[in-house]
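Issue 218. Parser rejects a valid record. Input:
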Amino acid sequence: MLHLIVKGGWLMLPILICSIFSLAIIIERIFFFSSIKFDTHSIIPQILEFVRTGRTAEAVEVCDKKPFHVTNILKAGFLHYDESKEIVKESMEDASLYEIPKLEKNLHFLSTIAHIAPLIGLLGTVVGLVKCFYVIEQKTVNMMGVVNPADLAGGIWEALLTTVAGLCVAIPTYIAYNYFVQKVNLLVLESERAATELLEVHSERRYACEV
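Output the parser choked on:
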């Protein structure tokens, strides 16, 4: 592997750096989303049940013990629960402006790596081919038209190494990026659903109090 990296030229270095950053982001996001998946399925129903039974203080306490995007958004609504529905909704919308970007953290880097890695590889291939044909030209001039086919074949396969490396980095990175984007969309939808249910319970309780 080290031999291939050296043969690929200096442009293999930025591709290698891209692969390291991509792997680090993917591992970090996997652990992040795994922890969220565990919390949401066990805590959100409990919080909403507390709200339905009028135990708002206990719901806030649960949110304080388990802070993540949904609980932080719901907590913002709990803090204004005695006010109008519009204020509760606005409070949760403001909180979501801070919480949703946490779900999308570093995903733009994955997208960038997935796009630039094959371009760097292509650049390396073009540079390698330029060098290859330059060598062929020099040998043709100096040896009166005698060119060894190995010169052409050897130069081309070395030039193509960067394209292969770039694609090897870009393909899994792009797959991971789309997977995490789908996770973010599902979590945002879950947050919206929980916020909507909280607003419905809020409306029902205010209506019951007025009656």
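Fixed in the parser; the record now loads. The chain has a mean pLDDT of 83.
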